[in-house]
Every structure is written in structure tokens, then in C-alpha cells.
Fold:
Amino acid sequence: MDAAPLSVDVFVAEGSAKDLFLDGFFPIGVFAQPEQSFAKWKSRGINTVLETPQGHDPISWDRAAQAADLKLIRRPLGDPKSDIGRKDLLAWSHWDEPDAAGRAPEWTPMFEKTAAEWRRIDPDRRIFINFAGPDLTWFTTRTDSYSKNYASFYPRLIATADWIANDIYPSGGWLNDEHKARRGDITLIAEPLKVLKKMTPKPLFAFVETSDVEAGNVPGARRPTVDEVRAQIWYAILHGVRGLFYFPAVVRAGAFQFDGTPSDIAEEMTRQNKLLTSLAPVLQGQIDPKGLTAVVERPIEIGWRSSGSTAAAIAVNTSREARRAVNIRFSGLEGFQESVTELQTGRVIKLSDGALSDDFPSLGVRVYLFRPARTS
Structure:
């Protein structure tokens, strides 16, 4: 097992912070959890809570989040004007999954009306929307008349929001017919992101499963493994998300749990959240900036984030087979040190002519931090 990641000392050049998304804050959230659990979630590295759970008082939930120093994404509390000036409120949220269960024709005009009213009241407040990833990929990639008509609602819904999220749970959730054979495939988490990138340049977000979600309701659904959760986190980041939200609930009929996260996944989540938090000033910089490239053979996939004079290359083994002595060749490294720190293991690796060789376990993740060269 990889060692605990470092608390990263990230250097961001003076003046570059203004170019960072959310000034370098990386939202790490959890969906619809009761206020009594906020201390637990904060100890796991969560910095944001989303949505008041059904049946819970939204005002007391809001106050508990403030007391715990957590950011919020939620619907307005009664009069939206009361939220004006709230710095801890990252965004107002539409109802969840407006595209699921055939709701788009009915909900789209309601969302358009709501968004227009919210923007009139507070033009500076961001609006958040979350799509059902399996529905999104299904309707936007099929050519039958019903799907094409249904897909026409997505641009309208996207127009009602500033931040666009989706949820797809490769191991524990419902999957459409096209994806059922890929149960457990961590790359599924990027399929809705690929669709959304073609539709909008707006900031994207993704949900990651931490429980067995719908096991017992959906044939084949199961709890994810620790390796799958870690790989989903970094594969989503590799594909451009500006924040991650965890879905820990078990929604099995007659056995609902707010948090079905097993202890081993909770431990790994905490470990990865620590790294995400310390690396946030780089993660919220440029995505795959021009000039920085990396070449590696599949099934390893790699992408970049950079800010100021610091960059990170994120590599994920999408295969369940370990890969030994994988060669990665980098270019555009002028101004960086000749060695990198691999943050999952804490190893310092010296580059040889702009390249390195590394081992990847099954579904392994490597995060290479490139620091600025020292100047005299």
C-alpha cells in the first residue's frame, strides 16, 4: 500500500492567485448529510456541504454548517435576499437531477423561471445544477427521436446555472444499458464530463461514490473498493473538474443510511482529501496548459494542472493489471527542477532527459509535483 501523502508545500507566484478558480479553494463536499455528522465529515477533510437532507430543518442545518466553518451549496432559505453577502455560501442549488426519471420537460421551464428570479435578486451569486450522469450520456449520444428531443433540454438547463455537476456511480449506482457491461470501470466517471465539455465551457464538478449506493435495488451494484474510489477521484480531476462531492448514502429499499462509507474507504478518502486540500492552489490553476505535455502508453492516462511556477501531472492506471517500469516523457519543463515529488508515496524522482520510469499498481494513481527551479 502506498505511504500517506505529503502535506504539500505549494509555491504560487505572486500575482497568480487572481487567475485561480475560486482563488485557489478546491471544494470537497458531501451530499445531504445531517448536521450531527458535520464534525465527522470535517475530520475526513470535507470543506463543503451540499443540500439540506429531507426532513431536516434548513435553518438549523445552515447554522450548524456555519458553526463548523463549512462552505455551503443549497437552495435559498426562504427569501433569497437574506443570502446576499454570504461569503460561505458558494452557490444556490437547483433541485437535484432535473434530467432523471423523465423530469426534464416539466422541470426545465421551472428552472428557467427560478434562475431568472435568483439572478435578478443577486447577480453575483453562482447557481449550481447537478445532472444524472447515466441519463446525460444516454440521451445525448442516441439518435432516436425521443432521445434527441429529450437531449434538447440540456442546453436550456445548463443555461440556468453557472456550475455544472453530474453524478455517475460505476460500482454502486444505476447504469444505463450501454454502461451495464462496464460495472466497476472507473473511467465511466469521465463519460458525462466528456459530454458536458462539448456543450459548455462552464466549470464542471463530479460526484464520487463511497458506499454501495443501490446494491440490492440494482442488479450488479456493489460497494466500490478503496482503489476504485481513489482512482475515481483523480480520474475526474484529470478530466477537468473544479471540485469533488462525495455521495455516501445507501438508498436500498428499507435500509437507508445517510452514510454507508466503510472504514477503509473513509480512511482513504481522508488521506486523499488532505492531499487535495494542500494541492488546491495548483488544482485550481490552468487545466492542461499549453506548453506542458506528457507522453505515456495506455492504459495509463495523464493530464496537467499548473499555477504560477508550479505544476502537477496526474497519472491514472485505468487497468486492473499492475504496470511496471512505465515510461513517461515530459516536455515544456523549462523553469522546473530536474526532479519531481510523487505525492501519493512521497518519493523524489530524478528526471532523465525529461523522462521518468515508474510502477503503477492496479488502478494506481501517481501525482507528480514539479516545483520551480531555484534561482541564484
